[in-house]
Amino acid sequence: MPPLDKLSGLKRLSGIHKLRDIPPLSRAIFPGAHCPLFGAAMVLAGISDALALVIGPEECTYYTKDFTIRREGFGGIDGRCVSFTLNHNDIALGCGEALANELKEVILERNPAAVFLITTCLIEITGEDIESVGRQAEAETGVPVLVIHTEHFICENHLAGMERTLAACAELAEPPKREPSGVNLLGGRLGQSEGAELIAALESAGARVRTRLPSSVCSISDLRSAARAKANVVLDAIALPYAKRLKERFGIPYVMFPREVDPERVNDAYAALFSQLDAAAPPTLAGEYANARKKTIEARAVLRGQRFIYGNTTIPAFAFVAFLARLGMEPVLMQTRDWKDEDEPLREAILRAGFDPYVTRSANLAPIRALYGQLQPRLYIGHEDGRSLKAQGIAQVTSDTCGDLAGFDLSCAILDLLMEAMRDA
Amino acid sequence: MRERRLVRYLPAPSERMGALWALLSLGDLMILEYGPSGTTHYSMEALRSLGMQGTRGLYTTHMDQDAVVMGDMSALSSAIRELDELHKPKYLAVLGSSVSSLIGADITALCADMRGEISARLIPIDHCDFHSDFSLGLRIVMDALVEAMAQDAASVPGTFNILGVSPDAYGARDDAAEIARLMEEAFGWKLNAALPWGGGKDGFCRTARASINLAIRDETLPSARFLRGKYDTPYHSGMPYGYKGTLDWLEGVSNIIGAAVNPRVVERLSRKAEAARQPLMINGRRVERFAVIGVYPFVKGMCGFLEGESGLTPVFRICSHSPETVESPDAAIQFLPEERDWMEQVGNLRDAILFADDVSLSMARPSVVRVLASHPRILRDRTDNPAMNGYCGERGADLLYTHNERED
Fold first, then answer.
1. Chain CA centroid to CA A164, Å
2. Do A3-30+292-424 and A172-257 share a fold?
3. Is residue B204 a contact partner of residue B150, using CB atoms and an 8 Å limit?
4. Which sequence spans correspond to the domains of chain A?
5. Domain A3-30+292-424 adopts which CATH fold?
């Protein structure tokens, strides 16, 4: 592969203002973006008594079930994911009646708190009216049935499936009967211990955390009572449509608290959060902030001048790269899966720091591997085959071990990982 | 009675899944999928449970609205040109998807149109979903690759191919290794290529060099007949199970190649066959009944062994795929497309040994001795070890009898 030709086809950050400005690095891609069906399954892992019914060909249903068997929270082989597998008659003649029958049967058999009917590309193309099947079953059984559309040929990646699944949950919320109190945490991909620092800070400020959506402790009952919260705290943009819908339906305000690494931005987020809650920030946070700043200064001495490729992590790409640029690290290539208006100040911050990295879309590793020799990064941040990187002398950092962290905890953990990678490199 | 459509566990993998697994099992074939990228990404997650590592050479085009709504196939032709130019592959398999099948994308015609401008030999496989299951996928891939890749060559005496070593069968590579060992010891013959899993592109190219093709899956019989017609290579069909069964299988091969089975092998297998007639004891319990679920040759072979040689009584024998690819299917073997039917039989099984997949085994009662011997194998996490053992041949029978605590 001729890397220089490919590099010249890439655009730099300064020339990009929206996702469509990013040219594909190649026509043949690998592995490609995950589909929204996968995103829907990820969210439903975190609603403990919801049943997922996937409507699609064997491939989509098999792999989703296989994923849910291995994913904590779905209940294994006998778990909360079942399928309606399409055959050629369904494609040619429709499957509404058969689906309605099976849906009612599984509701009677499993007695779920709610059913999520998840479509796939095929059933979206044939145009089957899944909503009417859901409404009919809901009327007959009294169990809420929500429809999640996951046509991958329209969506960019799995985030659309996560967003739509969360948004559908907003319709389950019931009008509050008591004075609102506490907050909901939305859009995290949290284990039970997720966001310990954030939760402790909220609770010491008198704001009890009510519902964590999705999470191992979230149920349909929690979603029904979600409107009892005084405010929604949004940890990831995938939960914004949910938060906006609750604001629209019940007037519940929301505040963003994105999972970011830069202690300055974390500090700002805490300030905005407690301002929204009309509460004083707990004094312990000042100590956490000072500690994170100290670590940042120490890290800067080691990381300054190190070239890196940013791949794919659960932390928003622009905020992460902008922070590393502030530390003096040189981004040579960044991969991104989305591009939001809110990213513009971060894009400018990277450019102001004196860096203008190449930008490409994530989930196309094959052609990027051919560029390592030209780009000569010291670090690769994100998922990639560790053996390929090691063979080229590139150290790797993933954020997998930080999935449960938010706030200054996340800042410190990421800085530790970066320092450790440089020591081992 | 209405058709049951709900699948509570794992549906039978589709023909496209079987085709993709067979193509990937070569390990060095370039493959381009024409479909939404999500399925490509998703499929990777399941490969480890089949015992496969890596997806080198796999690419996708992804499909957007233009492709789906307007039928625009330019993304596919551009990707083919790009791979041809950048990697200069000798062969490029172009695999359709359920979406490309639904919209009627004619991948075969596009590949034919591009033949003049592309250096790679394009191998279109656009028969995807809605028709059958993974077994047909294996047959389609074997037919396509043998026809496209086999090169003219003089046959090398004393060599053989194994046709049908496929990741959809549990322990397939162990089984192939056992067949190669048996052929070496019984006749002094050497393996030319195990296909599709193990031989790679080179194995398909060298197919004509073998002096006999051992078609261990019925899905490969059309390929075996193609090779017989083109290169005059004889073939033998079937898979060896049990001690007597293995000896019979070797005698069958012997009749075709005209070489006698090594007397030492005959003596040893005969002696073990005699010993296997004693009661089967596992975990201190005498086992008298058995049940099997799996791909056809496994079910057929294990039943012959356990019933015919060991004297166990079969409770049920279920083939995990459609009989469409099976020539002269055994009437005693059931093909059960509906999940409920096999669930019911597994749930009712008592005091028996069950050779089956992880899903079926999870439903078996405590009185059932459970042996993982079919896919799907469920990997619980990324550290789970996907090592497997096949049950074919002498070694497979030994594997079962190492658990056997003889009654004295």
1. 12
2. yes
3. yes
4. 3-30+292-424, 36-155, 172-257
5. Rossmann fold (3.40.50)
ipTM over 0.90? The verdict is yes
The H helix count followed by the E strand count for chain B is 16, 16
Residues of chain A contacting B49 with CB distance shorter than 8 Å: 66
Q: Which residues of A touch B12 (CB under 8 A)?
A: 58
Tell me how far apart the alpha carbons of residues A263 and A414 are, in angstroms, rounded to a whole number: 11
User: What residue ranges define each of the domains in chain B, with the CATH number in brackets?
Assistant: 15-131 (3.40.50.1980), 159-272 (3.40.50.1980), 276-401 (3.40.50.1980)
Which residues in A lie closer than 8 A to residue B32 (C-beta atoms)?
A: 28
| Mutation for A interface: B24, B56, B86, B131, most A CBs within 10 A | B86
Single-letter residue type at B298: F
Render pLDDT for B87-129 as a digit per residue (tens, 0 to 9): 999 999 999 999 999 999 999 999 999 999 999 999 999 876 6
* Number of alpha carbons in the 13 Å side-chain half-sphere of residue B328: 3
A400 touches chain B (CB under 8 A): no
The residue in chain B having the minimum alpha-carbon distance to the alpha carbon of residue A56 is: B98
Model confidence at B408: pLDDT above 50: no
Which two structure tokens, joined as six digits, stand for A372? 């390592």
pLDDT one-digit tens code per residue, B31-75: 999 999 888 878 877 788 888 877 789 999 999 888 998 999 999
Q: Give the E-state strand segments of B142-211 in sequence order.
A: 159-165, 190-196
CATH number for the domain running over A36-155? 3.40.50.1980
Q: Would you call A77 and B82 a contact, using CB atoms and an 8 Å cutoff?
A: no
pTM of the model: 0.93
Q: Which of A35, A69, A366 sits opposite B38 (nearest CB)?
A: A35
CATH topology of domain A172-257: Rossmann fold (3.40.50)
Size of interface A-B (CB pairs under 8 A): 179
Say yes or no for a CB contact (<8 Å) between B6 and A84: yes
